[in-house]
Design brief:
The chain is α+β, with helices and mostly antiparallel strands. The chain has one domain. It contains four helices and six strands; from the N terminus they run ααβαβββββα. A hairpin with a 5-residue loop joins strand 3 (150-156) and strand 4. Helix 3 crosses helix 4 (228-237).
Length: 238
């Protein structure tokens, strides 16, 4: 005789359906949590990268401001402008400690980390953007840098007839801890001996082009300083 089996009761069927629904809800909840964490991490990474780019652009602005300073700044007739035009050794002090009007002008430091430590010091000799050029850069909160970028100018050894400066610049993001440091070289060729005046000579030539003798200098290379905070700590210890 064939055994007779009872079909599952309605209550048992409801229990299985409820358990299945709970498992599906749990899977959806876990997936949502993972997606939310991924989105939050992505937003944080994007915010950090945006802040780093803000600091980078501020540092680039400081480099350009330093080059304007080297070319005479807002007062081409000043003692500072004259010293930069000839790289007068006496005004480029060890430790960048020449004082006004030679703030931020440094004797070449063989160990660049010493310059990094001075540049990172909020109370150090570095020159805030616009000090000698009148340039303005809005600072504040949100999408603006937290503070003005700054720079130092080192007088580098150079061949006769040329001047070579190394500019170190530090830019900030909206967060004080977001910092980008750059270094660039700026080269100027000095004008040759003036030719004797000739009344029959043609009209004066146009101003010399950047990078030519007697003309404005040019930037010949730049780089971002990697591991900035570690380099500053090493320079402070040294």
């Amino acid at each position: 005789m064939r055994a007779f089996t009872h079909p599952p009761s309605r209550a048992a069927q409801h229990g299985v359906a409820l358990l299945t629904a709970l498992l599906l809800m749990l899977a959806v909840l876990l997936s949502s949590i993972a997606a939310a964490r991924t989105a939050i991490s992505g937003a944080r990474a994007a915010g950090h990268e945006r802040d780093r780019l803000l600091a980078l652009q501020a540092a680039m602005a400081a480099l350009a401001d330093a080059e304007h300073d080297i070319e005479g700044g807002a007062d081409p007739g000043s003692a500072r402008a004259a010293a930069l035009a000839q790289a007068t050794p006496a005004v480029f002090a060890p430790g960048c400690g020449g004082g006004r009007p030679y703030d931020g002008l440094c004797e070449h430091a063989p160990d660049a980390r010493a310059v990094f430590a001075l540049l990172a010091d909020d109370d150090g000799p570095a020159v805030p953007l616009g000090t000698f050029t009148g340039a303005l850069l809005p600072v504040g909160e949100g999408a603006l840098p937290g503070q003005a970028p700054r720079y130092l100018i080192e007088r580098m050894p150079a061949a006769g007839g040329a001047l070579l400066y190394r500019v170190s610049a530090l830019g900030f993001g909206s967060a004080a801890t977001t910092q980008v440091a750059l270094q660039a070289y700026y080269r100027k060729l000095l004008a040759g001996p003036a030719e004797e005046s000739n009344p029959q000579a043609p009209a004066p030539a146009p101003p010399p082009l950047p990078g030519t003798a007697g003309g404005p200098g040019i930037r010949v290379g730049w780089r971002e300083i990697g591991n900035w905070h570690e380099a500053v700590a090493a320079g402070a210890e040294g």
